[in-house]
Amino acid sequence: MSQLPDPESLRLLVLVGDVGSLSGAAARLGLTQPSASKRLSMLERRLGLVLVDRTRRGSQLTDAGRAVAGWAQRVLQEMEGLLTGTEALRTKRDAELRVAASMTVAECLVPGWIGELRRTRPELYVGLQVTNSEQVPDLLRSGAVDLGFVESPRAPAGLSARQVARDRLLVVVAPGHPWTRRRRPLGVAELVAAPLVLRERGSGTRETLDQALRKAGVGEPLPLLELGSATAVRNAVIAGTGPAVISELAVAADLADGRLVSVEVEGIDLRRDLRAVWTSGRVPVGPAAELLAVTRRRGKKA
């Protein structure tokens, strides 16, 4: 394909599947039916697939269309998260709610939380500062932000905290890696002896791994490569650089689509809590309290 499908065509395809009608989907997007039909035809030519079965009784997605619509829905959700997150970064200087989040939480969860909050408070400016878990407490104590999110194994000293999500770290490899052919789980001693693609020191992911290895009675991990974000780690593993220990949240789509394979490890507990944190002695009010309420609702749905 010389060009990627445009988002509006993907959104139209998803709506055709939802409402079972090309005209109904077109009306929701403010398009005429001929314009919508032309968009779908162009999308089908671009992908080389028949996506919609057009009959007198309406328009139904083909088997290929249902598969593409499912993928398209994930793409659209990720794009919404991208736009929400970048807007928060852009407006952080004059934000009404200033948030700091560790890298994995910022990549995987915060855009969805802010997006839900903005649906009820569209006028609200939210500023997002993306950093690692080690730096979030300093930003809170200095008054630079109103609310923080961390993924370190312990709540930071001197701050109030509340669990907002659960996560676990996984050992992941590219599909052709020898570990994918193992019949038994990987031992923790084997894990610690292998060169790994790791997050940098100071990140919650690295702190969780280091603490879990200490509890298991083995030494520190052997770094093959140390990177500053979960996205960079997953890209390195997909490229075949080596195994990694990474948040399940960050690689769920890659595991489902077969780009990465999870390797079971015995003798180590890599579960962790993700927490909201704020200045001790202060009760979150206003937008900060509203964002906390969103995380609570999302946590109950998970």
UniProtKB/TrEMBL annotation:
Residues 5-62 form the HTH lysR-type domain. The keyword Metal-binding does not apply. PANTHER family: HTH-TYPE TRANSCRIPTIONAL REGULATOR, HTH-TYPE TRANSCRIPTIONAL REGULATOR CYSL. This is LysR family transcriptional regulator. PROSITE patterns: HTH_LYSR (PS50931). Keywords: DNA-binding, Transcription, Transcription regulation. The keyword S-adenosyl-L-methionine does not apply. Belongs to the LysR transcriptional regulatory family. GO terms for molecular function: DNA-binding transcription factor activity; transcription cis-regulatory region binding.
